[in-house]
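Hi R.,

Here's the chain you asked about this morning:
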Amino acid sequence: MNLRQVDHIAIATDDLPGAVRLFQDVLGGTFVMGGDDARKAIRTVQVGLPHVKVELMTPLHDGSYLHRYLQRHGPGFHHMTVFVDDVLATVAEVEVAGFETVDVDASHPAWREAYIRPRSGFGTLVQLVQTDRRWDVGKPGMTAAHVLAGDIVWVDHQVWWRHEAPEPSGVGRRGQG
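And the predicted structure, written out as tokens:
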């Protein structure tokens, strides 16, 4: 397996403005990207800190999987995303080593993913991702304030201004990393 890098750690919260205030305003993080993912019914803000990117996640409504997660577990650490060279080969290696993977989706070249289940990952949900894009830089002019206002959306693994966003292609199911 060729692990390229840890891309981010994700934190689930029901207070996204408060979390942005802490990680960006108080701790001095830099907005990277974010937006609403209608397919997953979540809003995310990614903030870069020295040597780590933090993804702050909140549900868009009560029907979101993340709302149910927060009801069961409360706010806090949700997952860690690591970039690999070949997600399907990595899944095979992880499973041969005795660890269980789920939700393998290699349908979109920008974001091929699988997860190591928390019960198999010592309580940690590990997202394995193969990608052909850079995820450490956002689009010029987009800010956390735009995300918090609902002005930015994820469509087909790209961030868009809501008023310019195309219809989703239906390929893949993941809106962002």
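The longest helix spans residues 16-26.

Let me know if you need anything else.
M.
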